[in-house]
Protein: Adenosine deaminase domain-containing protein
Amino acid sequence: MRHIKIKVRWREHAEAREMEGWVSMPKLELHAHLNGSISDSTLLELARPLGDHGVIDFSQVEHVILKNDRSLSEVFKLFDLIHILTTDHKSVTRITKEVVEDFASENVVYLELRTTPKKNDSRGMSKRSYMEAVLEGLRAVSSVDVAFIPYSEEEPRNISNPLHSQSNDKCCENTRKKIFVRLLLSIDRRETTEAAMETVMLALELRRFGVVGIDLSGNPVVGEWITFLPALKFAREQGLYITLHCGEVPNSKEIHDILDFLPQRIGHACFFEEEHWRKLKSSKIPVEICLTSNIRTLSVPTIDAHHFVDLYNEKHPLVLCTDDSGVFSTSLSNEYKIAASSFGLGKKEMFELSKNAIEFIFADNVVKKELRNFFNSAAKNLEL
Ligand code: 6MZ
Structure:
């Protein structure tokens, strides 16, 4: 009996040590939905007062939040519930702050956070005031320096704190940790062309506050590509970057249309057919891969059958991301751990995978240069 206990403890210890290794690796997160990245504890805290006031049935909500296995359609029902809990200015500010701090705590050095600007008349919220609350959240982060204003807009003096190597870097012991954050505004597939256009106009207005692009997301069985096309075209003409959820469900025509549009990145790419792969690979559009999300929503049958393997072997540009770390109870470090163990990749290969993503982030060349320098010095410190 004692023997078994020691073995279990030894295994737990080894697993914790392994996880620490993935946490300490610098990482870039390019596909994270704000309202999907909230911790369960924060969601429950936000739910409790609504339960007390009879707005929701707390025990039912608690059960839904803590449930782990969900189909894709259940995930979207959960989002509707999460939005009831979070769509007021104070909560939006709070969750933004917490989500950024959570990513920074696991050595995410560059975060592209996406969120759907929401109108909620009962709370006096417009899409613009929603985004102001998000920006307030970025300003409220205290555990780490957040660089979200593009350099072209920033006073030269604010550029002075470079990213520092977190480990063994004697010269930088007193330097505060820093995370770059850029924002993508999401168009929800339930929205009309006009609503999508409103989001694009808002993104243009907020460029000086670090909004760099547009995402198309939401329940993939809802809405038509043609509805969003005018807003996406306009966004691109105006110089915003575009990333699109693509192939989350089988929809051959839409996948072709999206690939023909040539977005700067796509997310998921689960239900691709031969012809789609051919088009994707020849266009070299980088893919945001969300392993746990795809497995949990049964968008891929098993981890061994995941398209990561083929894309990685073909050196197609890809980046590991969380999608919704709260909803799927994961973290970016965990996604790295899963990829390494499932696909037999070592620390050095994973580090290169992380570093390569710098080339397809939506930030300017100054940020890219700083990230490259940072990864080069981190490689020395981590002996990679
Ligand atoms: C498609 C997703 C998604 O925008 O309220 N979202 N859309 N596929 C997914 N994979 C499972 N995960 C999240 O964050 C939540 C919203 O992001 C989109 C959905 O529209 C969801 O309502 P925000 O911050």
